[in-house]
Design a protein that fits this description.
Blueprint: H1 2-6, H2 15-39, H3 41-46, H4 59-81, H5 89-111, H6 136-139
Helix pairs in contact: 4-5
Transmembrane segments: 20-38, 58-78, 90-111
Region (Disordered): 120-143
Keywords: Membrane, Transmembrane, Transmembrane helix
Length: 143
């Protein structure tokens, strides 16, 4: 298939190349489904309202793996979209979409992990993080 893409002569796609392209697409869909399954999102969707705080043991490794994948895909598509032989607006769009997914994964790593703290007195959710910002108001002594 790579030889076909690089050759200047037009030719038709063989049945083997069609089969390989479809099987790679099916495997990509399977990886996306496994990503949802191992991250615990499917359990959270189908859980009852009271048991919505379902923690999956594979959520953190799945998050790191998808962050690496989306970052690598963003860099690869960005590099290919500005090469003269493969320049396309679809590659740039794909690069931007992977950038958005990688950025959201990075935000989840920075702010979304760690156990939450529920106040015993008020029952309020106190899941806040000071990383990478500093809360100067709470550091001051109360007078």
């Amino acid at each position: 298939m790579i030889v076909w893409m690089l050759s200047p002569d037009p030719r038709t796609v063989t049945s083997l190349e069609t089969f390989l392209a479809r099987s790679f697409a099916a495997s990509l869909l399977l990886v996306a489904f496994l990503n949802l399954l191992l991250s615990g999102e499917l359990q959270a969707i189908f859980a009852e309202a009271g048991a919505a705080d379902v923690n999956s043991p594979y959520a953190s490794p799945t998050l790191y793996a998808t962050l690496i994948y989306n970052t690598a895909s963003c860099i690869m598509l960005y590099t290919y979209s500005y090469s003269h032989s493969l320049s396309s607006s679809w590659l740039t769009t794909g690069s931007l979409l992977h950038l958005i997914l990688a950025s959201s994964g990075l935000l989840l790593i920075m702010f979304g992990q760690g156990p939450g703290h529920i106040s015993k007195r008020t029952g309020a959710d106190k899941r806040t993080s000071g990383f990478p910002f500093k809360n100067a108001e709470s550091d001051r002594k109360k007078r």
